[in-house]
Write a structure and sequence with these properties.
Number of domains of chain A: 1
Largest sheet of chain A: 10 strands, antiparallel
Largest interface: A-B, 42 and 45 residues
Oligomer: homotrimer
């Protein structure tokens, strides 16, 4: 099918970019495919590549597709689907390289939000509804919150052009999840195991404000049931820059169900507010869909193994399906469990959230000493590995690892929300 | 012309959607044509169909066209024109299935707004200018206000993700008129009278907020001088949902002119504010274009006939051209007359507005008991029939019907604005 | 290359506008080329024309190109490059006919903003960050601030639909720089010197608000090192309208460097705030890139020559490269020097700003008597001529002209910021 693909790609490229292009897929198996580039002014609306289309793509059938969505608020949103032969990973370059979902057989990483479309950022107003506009597009499995700020909306100070400190309204979970990617490249390793890498660059930058670059690589090995996100955040400004980054990773049915559990090795666990405190005894067990349920949020200080890695598991009630997140606690020292087991129609979901801090307003995070800062030119790397685990044995193996990391340490359970630090507010 | 059309449509479909499509118009007279679908990822940028292009389209020449607009703030906005042989109805799927105008000979339903372009929602910020951003795109004959809220901007309470009641800034006339349609289908009845139906689905939904679906059908019979809007609003959330819906139907020249009149059978009529009270004696007669005119708004409790229908008429000074709205007062129990007979350059216009309430802020509407609510899963239907009436006899016939509905009832005329209900505000 | 161009243009036109078009470039040298038109529904995504493509285009090689940008926040932004054989002028019709940069050999009019992409207005929210959202797209050489308001964000009064005076939040530098052009035409003079003119029309208009039209013509003579901006702003509303217009013209390296100077004939010079007052003695000399530098702004009342023209010069340290702005002080009676010699990564830049007033909030400008108003239907013209000057002699010639305009007048230097006028605020 290469020739046909080639003609189609060349046709689409030429029309979209307004400039003639050679068809990369027609070359002698190039291993790098530019899908979007603000630098070279390219935007490929439709793309398809399989292990047969490249010279050193390996023997395991895989396929990468890109398409553009239409209708309603998803007009113009783009999706890249990486099918590694076992997992189908759906990436949203138009929305900051979020991941819409991952499917594998009867397991799905993702959830059913009342927001059904992949909302294009041009239809998002983060400031609306008292700073909750982010919720108009919230439906992904994995959405990054950040980078200048994340967490709850509300007032915080910033420096204006005149050097004065002024108040601004922070918006829920920041901007990065609603910024279209400037650069997107597909890379196919020529060497076994022929890892498939989708690399994106997203800029959160302005004049008199942050100049932050996110370079993300979402990758997977053909035939495996794992994927990796490796992000590098760089301060391209000339001054120190505060950052926040929450990996808001969300799960609904079928993994989430009555009796599903979350496991994570913990030094300390605290309820985020009084309402969460009332459900503290069941903090790691889930209810079924419960109309009128009000979210309960738990703040976890995770324990790591000797290499600095921590590990969280979400498993279904039967314990025969599960998914795990492995991350480095030096990179992401905090972990939040967001329980929102409301009615299915309202979005039955839980969020597991490795992060640089907790989802309080930045004012609180700063006062609590949980804000990260980047010096001029400094970069910080964040890596997360996600696994799907099918069968009781596979699930139990992850649970056992978590128990080993927990070891003899008894988690301290705070019965009441942490005291709010002094933010200097009157 | 079918073969040429077919090639063009197939070409455009293929390019826009990125996927090859069969040309529906080339089939054996299919009666349903998908113009937009978020579900099946279709967006037809250009479309044309006539009574000759379908097998059972009837003998009366009609034509439906779709095109995409360019330039300024209308870049990307789409228009569907339904020409039933007598009326040309111009629908804006990109703006919530509003209707830009209806033309028939020398009569026009519509007006000349200072906003000349069909503004794409991506250029609208409803929150700007103290919540008056809606005015940046306001130029249609018929625009729905709603669905979560309509009417004046200002503070009201809502429920946050944490279950708390917080204040939010409502924006003028809500969101539904600035949301692109997710699904748009043209349906041609195979049975006489071969009614032409443009059906659209628009979603006003978010996480931690309303999950409302509007299914609208705008339809007309070939050769007739009537059109019908039938809307079904459904609460797809799991909890009770307040809704507001105002049909903001606007008229300028040539129907609106000095001496033009509005007729509506009324139980009670009240001025909306003191300024309107000062013009109460002329509430149903219009001035010519008056530079510096400040809007005057009148609140009407309409009377219905035995079948529940009410009827409003706008007629020109000579009484030989008119247009009517027929609606069910159980569905839409309130009716507002918005007089804005300012200079032509500033938008000489009147609005006739059947609605679930009055255009006060939702806080006021709630306190006054005029807010509608939908239970989980509940739907509510709204139907309006619009007619054009040419000639003194035709106009007088409608006026006579309105007099018969009014009957012996003397409308109560309030000389002062209604007392504001207690909203619980301090 | 004409035939190939013709086919390409026709193809693109046909696809983008959805309608077949004749290829203008294939005609017998037409001199007017529509690139965008909301009136006739045209949008040419790709365009190219040279002196060889028109009959009376002259002998000096020139080229005009239009392309559409892709990737990140510049997706869909358009650029028109006018290469007059000596200058390359890059116009952004999508952003209110701003000018991104002008290049000529080793001289550049422009700067290196941390905002690298030509941000499409659909991604701009002017109200965000306390009204500083304009900074998300700020990277042009020349951006107009206005038209309803310009300058600092903050509260000011306006008239609502009900005739009441209410407060609204003005946003930094207004809207005109983020409104896509409704009409864009390229005109090639048939008569020598065959001036190339790009004419654009941008509307800042709404219902219950301003109805302002900007017609701009950006023009240059093939082979010259000058360009002219001639703007006509018209109040298309029926009432008096306040306007503000600042030509925010920005320069970075290589012209801006340590020891660079600005020259302008001045009656009076004042620092905008206390911080600027502290640097008053060096108000017209620039520092090199200085991390942490806080902007310093100087307010200048310019002197004109007998014909009403004033002239400003920015020259490099060696005095062998310079650029000038010539304008009429009746049209633009005020001039602001914005010094922002911060680190290169943060945007090392100076702005020279002929304007109708100073960049205070409109509330202040009104109270100080610096607001311009347009009667109903009234137009006001603004013309600016820009020159590049290479070589010590050429630069010195401009400096000499400025000295002659200054003449014997000693500029009054205010040591402290001007007293704030009484704005009626409590």
């Amino acid at each position: 099918m290469l020739p046909r693909l080639c003609v189609l790609v060349a046709l689409v490229c030429g029309l979209v970019s307004g400039e003639p292009m050679t068809c990369r897929a027609a070359d002698n198996a190039p291993q790098k495919f530019v899908l979007t580039s603000a630098t070279t002014n390219q935007q490929i609306g439709h793309f398809e590549l399989t292990h047969l289309d490249v010279e050193n793509g390996g023997d395991i059938p895989w396929r990468v597709q890109k398409k553009t969505l239409h209708g309603g608020k998803q007009e113009g949103s783009e999706l890249i689907t990486v099918d590694n032969g076992k997992l189908q990973i759906v990436i949203v370059p138009t929305r900051g390289m979020n991941i819409l979902e991952v499917r594998s057989g009867d397991v799905r990483l993702g959830w059913d939000s009342p927001v059904k479309e992949v909302v294009h950022p041009k239809f998002i107003d983060l400031d609306t509804r008292g700073g909750l506009g982010w919720l108009d597009g919230f439906n992904e499995w994995m959405v990054r919150c950040g980078l200048e700020f994340a967490g709850h909306p509300g007032k915080d100070v910033f420096t204006t052009n005149t050097g004065d400190r002024a108040e601004m309204d922070l918006t829920l979970h920041g901007k990065i999840g609603n910024i279209p990617s400037s650069e997107v490249v597909l890379i196919v390793d020529s060497e076994p195991p022929h890892r498939l890498r989708v690399r994106g660059v997203v800029y959160e930058r302005m004049f008199f404000g942050p100049k932050l670059q996110l370079v993300t690589e979402i990758s997977t090995v053909p035939g495996s049931d794992e994927l990796t996100i490796e992000d590098v955040v760089t301060n391209q400004g000339a001054g120190e820059q505060e950052i926040e980054l929450i990996y808001h990773v969300n799960y609904g049915a079928p993994l989430l169900e009555e009796g599903a559990q979350v496991h994570v090795p913990a030094k300390r666990i605290a309820p985020m507010n009084d309402h969460a405190a009332s459900g503290l005894d069941r903090w790691n067990t889930y209810a079924g869909p419960t109309p009128g349920y009000i979210e309960q949020v738990y703040l976890v200080e995770p324990i790591s193994d000797r290499s600095g890695q921590s590990l969280a598991l979400l498993r279904n009630a039967a314990g025969d399906r599960g998914t795990s997140i492995r991350w480095n606690v030096e990179q992401l020292p905090y972990f939040t469990v967001w329980k929102n087991t409301t009615a299915v129609a309202d979005g039955y979901v839980t969020g597991l959230e490795p992060a640089t801090g907790y989802p309080y307003n930045r004012r609180v995070e700063r006062a609590a000493g949980r804000l990260a800062t980047l010096d001029a030119g400094e970069s910080r790397t964040f890596r997360l590995d996600f696994g799907l685990h099918v069968g009781t044995e596979a699930v139990e193996q992850v649970a056992g690892t978590i128990r080993r990391i927990q070891g003899e340490t008894q988690p301290e359970i705070l019965r009441t929300p942490p005291e709010m630090p002094d933010t200097g507010d009157e």
